[in-house]
Amino acid sequence: MDLGSGRDTNSYYDYLARWILLEGNRLLLTGGVVLGFFLLTLFLVSYGIISVGPQSPIQSILGSGVVAGLFSLISVTLAINQLISSRVFGSLDQLQGKLEGGSDLRDTVSEIADHPSPPIRIANFISFVGETMQEQAECLPNDHDFRDDAIQEQIQSYSSDLTAYAETVQQISGEMPAEKVIATLAGPDFAHHLNQTDELRSKQHENLTKEEREILDTIADLLGLITIFRQYYKTIALHQELAQLSRQFIFVGLPAVIAALLAPLLYKTNSPVALTSYPHELVIVITLAIVITPLVMLMAYMLRIATIFRYTVSVAPFVPPIEWPWSE
């Protein structure tokens, strides 16, 4: 489903969808879902719709099923840590290759911009690339007697569109949340501009000066760098997101396991429960809310990660298969 198809992206529905799927605080979202589950369960128990008494299956659910499920989630956490570690470790040759590759790309932009020291923060560097691309685009629309007005208008339109895109890229900064940076760079704009650059270079080759052809070559290189660093930034940001999930899962997973192990001990064989009815029901409902927290947290984080992957899966010059629904 394309959330942006035929919809007003400024509507309350789309704002809420964007907050839940992308921009919302994951801990706040987790807390809201858990609180809703707690209130719903308490309502159902209070009115006798569901039972947590001695004759209910709650003991076996908490004592075996929930504990087994929590340990399965622990396995998921270990797999996440293994995924993150696979990108951190490497041989000397591999690490040196990454260093040289990053340095070469940085030097390329430095040479184009005639700036000796581009920013070292990834988001600020992407903004610097956008600034350099805008400077190149503004050098294009020069009037020449040897070409007609239609071609000149095409070049002017191309320059204006590219400048607008470059200004959007320049809005990125290291102070922005990672998901905001990804949202700013998402969408097919980079691929469209790269395609327009190739068309202008090939179809209007004879109507362009040598300087203009060189500028278009530079712009194509900068657009390619933007998509490379977009994917690189996304990779780093999502690995940090997974690392944060792994860490927070430990903090909520341990209390959940302890609660699931201790709650069945409130029940005594062939006798009423250890606590009176109302406190007992409240304790069990609280326990259920605690044990479901790790699963809700995992789903909240995976929802954002899956949303980003769904809409930013391709690399230039190809357009993503599904258009980003929240264009800036």
TrEMBL record:
Which residue spans traverse the membrane? 27-49, 61-80, 249-267, 282-303
Keyword annotations from UniProtKB, A to Z: Membrane, Transmembrane, Transmembrane helix
Q: Domain of life, per the record?
A: Archaea
This protein's name: Uncharacterized protein
One family name in Pfam for this protein: DUF7972
